[in-house]
Amino acid sequence: MQREEIWTEKYRPKKLDEVAGQTAIIKNLQSYVMQRNLPHLIFSGPAGIGKTAAAIAMARELYGNTWAENFTELNASDERGIDVVRNKIKNFARTMPIGDASFKIIFLDEADALTDAAQSALRRTMERYSGTCRFILSCNYSSKIIEPIQSRCSVYRFKSLSHDAIAARIKYIADKEGLKLSDDAVRALNYVAMGDMRRAINALQSTAVLSSEIKPEMIYEITATARPEEIKELINKALEGKFFAALDTLEDLMDKGISGDEILAQMHRLVINLDIPARKKVELMDRIGEADYRITEGANERIQLDALIAAFCLSSDKE
């Protein structure tokens, strides 16, 4: 059956112009392909927005049938020490490219996870083998890459994907897979994805296992995401000072298996768009940020969420 394949791989872009939502960057990468030459590159930005897809698509266009022999992908977060640079990377970099290619490409995913010592060793490897090898470093934050490496690379900052870019790709996949996808379902997938194409496609595939007719409630349920209306109801009850009613709503959400950090992330997204005075919005955002930090540091999730609801209720008394 077709659905046994992972759709993020099945529908991974084969060409640069298939990479969604990064028009300016793709145009520059296409010019490198035309010149058949490129500098070392850094791709930075959040997950699921096309960094790996762009690197592989560029390699396919550069090398044609020999792209797999001239391109290697390593995940730096798995092997983040200096040994991976001294052994794996150096061994690949020192061998000559296959076919008529003038250089190989090493794609280092999550390069910001490399230790400083490993990055220093990588800098020397990049200098020594620049004649036969180009490096593409992918990271969430380019600031975590040491300055000597940044200065040797062209930095491309990928942005979160727009609703239109995700909607277009999702509709294309749904059409190919014979799925019925309503506009409400597309909006739900966009809400769940938060600009992450990989998350949107995975949510679509997970939902398609249940039915060929994709409905919003199925998407929210299978991704353990609260409906926007439910989070809005929680916030409104708290801001009206209805502490116990807000706690009941929170209890219902957590009974559905929705995690505390997911609830906080959704509250953050909705508070920004609330029709309340700016100063109050700042206070609420500060409280959400504090609760998120404490949970990340290991505090009890339920206590922090209850305290956040209490803070929202108290803010209603100040009006």
Structure description:
The protein has three domains: 2-157, Rossmann fold, CATH 3.40.50; 163-222, Helicase, Ruva Protein, domain 3, CATH 1.10.8.60; 228-317, Up-down Bundle (Zinc Finger, Delta Prime, domain 3), CATH 1.20.272. It is 57% helix and 10% strand. The model has no long low-confidence stretch (mean pLDDT 89). It has helices spanning 7-10, 23-35, 51-63, 67-70, 82-94, 116-128, 147-150, 163-176, 183-193, 197-208, 216-222, 228-239, 243-255, 260-272, 278-296, 301-317, and strands at residues 40-44, 71-75, 104-109, 133-139, 153-157, 180-181, 213-214. The chain has 16 helices and seven strands. 34% of the residues are buried.
SSE order, one letter for each helix or strand = HHEHHEHEHEHEHEHHEHHHHHH
Strand order of the largest sheet: 2-3-4-1-5
What structural class do you assign from the helix and strand content? Answer: alpha/beta
**Overall number of domains:** 3
Secondary-structure arrangement, i.e. CATH architecture of the largest domain: 3-Layer(aba) Sandwich
- Gap between N and C termini: 60 Å
As a whole number of angstroms, the C-alpha radius of gyration is 23 Å
CATH superfamily of the largest domain: P-loop containing nucleotide triphosphate hydrolases
